[in-house]
């Protein structure tokens, strides 16, 4: 089974961008962590990043039936995008949202996430480790569904 790990705008700049909020891990480090977690759980990881809302919507459509589950950090689009939310609503497998920072401890405009409304779970504020936790939770939900 394949778990898609999707990343939205500006996450390509991790490592240099606001390390106070997001830590020092680069997106390549996070990809490696996801691949290691996938290896341990017998899952292939399809790891992607885009700065473009429509590209993210297209990726979700492409993966909606083939991915066993989706982990998504839609970044700023979490707080703005009804189209990303609506695309995620048609994903067949489980969806787990992840944020590096604790969005509830930050500016008010980050407190609401459209993605959370269609997610099976949310991991926020656990840094890069949150991605591993999210992949593990998707694996758990996928295994529970086939039992
Ligand atoms: C983020 C939180 C968002 O509010 C922000 O726009 C991001 C990153 C996080 O991982 O903490 O780009 O999704």
Concise account of the structure shown:
Catalyzes a trans-dehydration via an enolate intermediate. By secondary structure, the protein is an alpha/beta fold.
User: Which geometry do the CA atoms define?
Assistant: globular
Q: What ligands does this structure carry?
A: 1,3,4-trihydroxy-5-OXO-cyclohexanecarboxylic acid
Main β-sheet description: 5 strands, parallel
Q: Supply the helix-strand structural class.
A: alpha/beta
Helix content: 25-40%
* CATH hierarchy, class: Alpha Beta
The radius of gyration is 14 Å
Order of helices and strands: EHHEHEHEEH
Number of strands: 5
Strand order of the largest sheet: 2-1-3-4-5
Tell me the CATH superfamily.
Dehydroquinase, class II
Report the end-to-end length measured between terminal Cα atoms: 15 Å
CATH level-3 fold name: Rossmann fold
The tally of helices reads 5
What's the overall average pLDDT, rounded? 97
Overall domain count: 1
Q: Regions with pLDDT < 50 over 5+ consecutive residues?
A: none
